[in-house]
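Justification of computing resources. Each target in the renewal requires a structure prediction run like the one illustrated here; the chain below, 312 residues long, is used simply to show the kind of job we budget for.
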Amino acid sequence: MQKLGFIFPGQGSQKIGMLKNLILDSNVVQDTFSEASEVLGKDLWEIVQLDTASNLDKTEITQPALLTASTAIWRVWNDKNGPRPSIVVGHSLGEYSALVCAGVIPFQDAVNLVFRRGQYMQLAVSGGIGKMAAIVGLGSQKVEEICKEAEETDVLSAANFNTPEQTVIAGNVDAVDRAIALSKKEGAKRALPLNVSIPAHCDLMKPAAENLEKELSKIKFNRPKIAVIQNVDALINDDPEKIKRNLVKQLYSPVLWVNCVKLINKKQIKNLVECGPGKVLSGLIKRIEPKITCHGSDDAISLAKAIEEVSV
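Resulting structure tokens:
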């Protein structure tokens, strides 16, 4: 059997109706969402399936919804005797899903934690202050140079190193707009604002990080049962206190996704399961390490196929 890894998506992968097919195949999904709903005091499954009040894209709901979806898939995978991964990594919010599945954070604690994380992120920056944009077609070093030129007296920095030629930037609105203009001038294929209200992974999130640190101090972290790569240093960490410190830093530091995937490849992982809705991360990995095979898992057919293919 080839070595296996699991990858966990972050915000942007949520969609109305996610896991609807999988719930018909396993009661584990409903049980997991019920567990999360009890923590939040809201029917999370109803929000995910119907979203009649347009709550799913509110960050304090998006975060626990995605964490719960990923945890539900992980539990179904184990219920169906899917092979155990030797390494896990999540993108931004997805890091919390990875830590739950690695046994570091109890699920109920994590649901409350990411709900609070979402609230703190929203409170850290008033509406209209911050912005994010994706720069495609320029190397990451060039994008960092553009950020330095465009920031002036504002906050602006690289937020996500998603592929060698796709970097997301974050900061004050005017600075991001200047960087978009400079990127186009430098020959970027695309330089587009993202439809998000929160400029994550930049210094504007430091007030949120301070509040998150207080929440983290209330939770006992365990040593990982599966190797976990963290976003801020793209390294495998097993010390619970260091993991906590890195989660605090993660809020205002860039996601080193390219380096995380490079480490996966260095560890000779040839198969990855995207444990969450959609295939956003699988698409990024094709542009980083195309020889790695990615598998979906968010419906019954995809999950059964993934188990069959990675069990060879």
